[in-house]
TrEMBL record:
This is DUF2064 domain-containing protein. The lineage of its organism: Bacteria, Pseudomonadati, Bacteroidota, Flavobacteriia, Flavobacteriales. PANTHER family: GLYCOSYLTRANSFERASE, SLL1095 PROTEIN. It comes from the Bacteria. InterPro entries: Nucleotide-diphossugar_trans, Trfase_1_rSAM/seldom-assoc. SUPFAM superfamilies: Nucleotide-diphospho-sugar transferases.
Length: 230
């Protein structure tokens, strides 16, 4: 029997996310993230299951996270790729790499720079609720702890370490990763940081990517606002 794999997006809804993560441009950023994730996940052909605050159950992050995984596994899924909504560098090949790992019997982890992780791909037999619940959630130790736990269950494949966005400093520091970002994120950053110098990359290349949609994300309303304020 073919294994059933799904993508679990564990995140708050856009409005609640913006009320918690208060930084300039947050509404545009999380709206674009939601649309992009929908597009990326649809390309995989896998079921996409969103778990926002209306479906999450628990008194803290760890409980909500583990309960969400347990709930989706109970719906008949044998493997899950779990992601959030705050990693703008996430690309299709990160998802495909995790799919390949699962098909080879491995687990997959994408670490974030703050000590957490933005992607976890596991099979149902790798998930032990009490063990996962006991991890140091919302700390810089959680990625190292989950690696130690996963290595007792299967071979672990690692994908790129990416930046996630929790506050204004995180969002502004995305400028250091500009070549890895989609056009719409760059445009949002340009709009809110009027004095930013776009010498971080060749201006003609930047214009080409906007005009011809090299990043596959046109974002025309944001572009028109940027053009009027430039």
């Amino acid at each position: 029997m073919r294994e059933k794999t799904g993508i679990l997006i564990f995140s708050r809804s856009t409005d609640i996310e913006c009320s918690v993560k208060k930084f300039d441009g947050n509404q545009s950023f999380f709206e674009s993230q939601k649309e992009r994730l929908e597009n990326l996940c649809s390309k995989t052909g896998l079921d996409t299951i969103w778990y926002n605050e209306h479906l999450q159950v628990g008194g803290n992050f760890g409980e909500r996270f583990c309960n969400s995984i347990s709930s989706v596994f109970s719906k008949g899924y044998n493997s899950l790729i779990i992601i959030g909504n705050d990693s703008p560098q996430l690309k299709y090949y990160h998802l495909q790499s995790s799919i390949d790992s699962l098909q080879s019997g491995r687990v997959s982890l994408g670490k974030s720079f703050d000590g957490g992780f933005y992607l976890l791909a596991i099979k149902k037999q790798h998930f032990n609720y009490p063990e996962f619940l006991n991890l140091s959630w919302n700390t810089s130790k959680v990625s190292s702890e989950i690696i130690q736990l996963l290595q007792t269950k299967a071979k672990v494949s690692f994908i790129s370490t990416l930046k996630d966005v929790d506050n204004q400093l995180d969002f502004s520091s995305l400028l250091n990763f500009s070549k890895q970002l989609y056009t719409d994120v760059i445009l949002i950053l340009k709009r809110i940081q009027k004095f930013f110098d776009f010498n971080f990359q060749n201006p003609s290349l930047f214009n080409e990517k906007i005009i011809f949609g090299s990043f596959q994300n046109k974002a025309p309303p944001i572009l028109s606002r940027v053009c009027r304020t430039s």
